[in-house]
Amino acid sequence: MIDEQEAIVEFNFDIPEPVPVCKCLRDDESSEQIEIQPRKLKILSTVSRTENYLMEHQIPALMRFLLTKLMNQKSETPLSYLEKLLDDCMLYRAGYGSAPVLYEDKHLEAVIKSFDPSNRGWLTIGQVRRAHDILGLTMKEFQTDQIPCHTVMDTLKKSQESELLQLLSAGTMAQEKDHEN
């Protein structure tokens, strides 16, 4: 049998240092001053400048476009495909060649057909808006409630070409701003 005195075990706990809490979890009225160390401030500044640069030049959107085209094509030589795609994009931006758009005519026709299965030949403004949303395109305003399917097709083509041109021109527009300043 164990003696009662032998069964008592002493634990020495050190009181831990206060754990820093995210500023978003504290009350706005907190009087606690937050001091950011110079090293951390430099890192945050670099991250912020990097994010601003990428967004200003629309690099994430361009990478999404390139990767989506690559995944759609499933090329056996992905680097060669991307090189050719970038060349095609630059030629289009310069006004030569056709737009290497994401959606081919067959894709656009399938979307339009899904909204007009009975072949009425027109879509409602709500259907056109949903078609643009599905494709991730910006919609222009229409004056009528019934838009002919060929007009919708033309609008979808022009929208994606216009948005691609804006994406491809993003870096050059930023450079022009820098030169003006």
Oligomer: single chain
CATH class term of the domain at 105-172: Mainly Alpha
Strands of the widest sheet, in order across it, are 1-2
Distance between the termini: 88 Å
What does the average pLDDT come to?
A: 81
Number of helices: 7
List the helices and strands and how they pair.
Layout: H1 4-7, H2 38-56, H3 59-73, H4 78-93, H5 105-115, E1 122-124, H6 125-135, E2 146-148, H7 149-180
Antiparallel strand pairs: 1-2
InterPro entries: EFC10 (IPR039879)
Report on the structure:
With about 180 residues, the chain is mainly alpha-helical. The protein contains seven helices and two strands, in the order H-H-H-H-H-E-H-E-H. Among the domains are: about 40-95; about 105-170, Recoverin, domain 1. It is about 60% helix and about 5% strand. The protein is extended. The termini are far apart.
Question: In a nutshell, what does this entry contain?
Answer:
This protein is mainly alpha-helical and 181 residues long. It has helices at 4-7, 38-56, 59-73, 78-93, 105-115, 125-135, 149-180, and strands at residues 122-124, 146-148. A two-stranded antiparallel sheet has the order 1-2.
